[in-house]
Amino acid sequence: MSAIDGESGLASATRGEADDIPRRLENLPGSSYLWRLVILLSLGGCFEIYDLFLTGYIAPGLNRSGLLTTTTQAFFGFSGIGAFVAATFAGLFVGTFFLSFLADRYGRRAIFTYALLGYSAASVVMAFQTTAGGVLLWRFIAGIGIGIEIITIDAYITELVPSWMRGRAFAINQAVMFIAVPIVAALAWWLVPLSPYGIDGWRWVVLIGAAASMIIWVLRLYVPESPLWLSRHGRTKDAVKILATLESSGGIQRARQDQPAEKVVPRSAAKLGYADLFKAPYLSLVVLLMVFNFCQAFGFYGFANWVPTLLVEKGITVTKSLQYSFIVAFAYPIAPLLAASFADRFERKWIICGASVAIIVLGLAFSQLILPALLILCGVLLTASNMTMSYAYHAYQTEVFPTAVRARASGLVYSMSRVSAMLSGFIVAYMLRETGVVGVFGLITIAMLIVIVSIATLGPNVRGKPLDA
Length: 469
What we know:
Helix content is about 70%, strand content about 0%. Helix 6 runs antiparallel to helix 7, helix 9 (about 180-190) packs antiparallel against helix 16 and helix 14 (about 285-305) packs across helix 20. It is globular and about 65 Å long. By secondary structure, it is an all-alpha fold.
């Protein structure tokens, strides 16, 4: 056999191994090692959630320190809490829309590490700002890093677990990440009303999260690169080696063999780019998920980022509002754990629609209630509904796109929720001033109705389908 024939045979074998990787991933058993990787990635995401959710919890502190006001006379007032919320999501938009391709180009593992370090550094700088402009600028920069991190983790987990357990993996992922919410709520409840050592309490809340994020240097040592990403970038040997570890960790004989995996025809990373997302067969899906993300953010962040402020507007003191918000915050990690029991039993789109209906009903109830116990109960249930929708769509919007553009495609559609959440900072502040809490939840109701109609009628089915099929 000639040298050319030998090289051709080797290349053919390599291509065969690369093409076989999606099937082998789909047949992976749910080993303890695989679940450990999901949890490690989720622990990294804890800092992202901490940084994202401190937006609402330190808002009363920013107001108390005189840096920002609750509402402003101008709709786009840059001296209010709405501007702080908007700066956060403006940064998230830049990160998801313009920079999500970095995870496709340089790998999930590298971006997972450096995006977190970037936004943690920006948060430290923000904590030492003494003007409204300085706080908003560095909050914007921190938001860029958070946006990149969110998309990277979603793509990472999607590519490490088979379809038959992906719903549960995302539910556990959300449960672990959102442990950060009661933590930041507790710290805000404790520190925001105080000024330890003469430093505003909200600054301590920011710095504590940034300091704790250094644990990422330890976590990254135990998380491998995505085999699918490696194979799409010509590193088939590395991909096969990692895949062999994933298989052996649970015993390959225990892999799911009850149904043959669907035949997968992978597409090369070099043949897909942003332009392809605006052509068939992706255009209709991209538009659908853009509309969905724009609307769902009103339901999620319209409540999540404004819980303490909404409670204050209902006549509850700042200290009490932070205390109630802390109790409500426990629903963030607990709700996804409960949802894991049915995460893979139902089609993802119907879980999204069901949660949206609950958000409407509970949101309207929250706007009418006055008694603290009922407010807390309704807030817990509303948060649980938001989290059920959240884990479902985070899985949904990554698994519908191919590996070659998974991060940039999900970043593109997800960026619309960043635009929406950015605008919601101003819109909620305006509605709160003009129509009160009732008007805020009326707006959320309209947004969630659009979510239900669009996803129910146009959303594709994904349950049980392997990636790149």
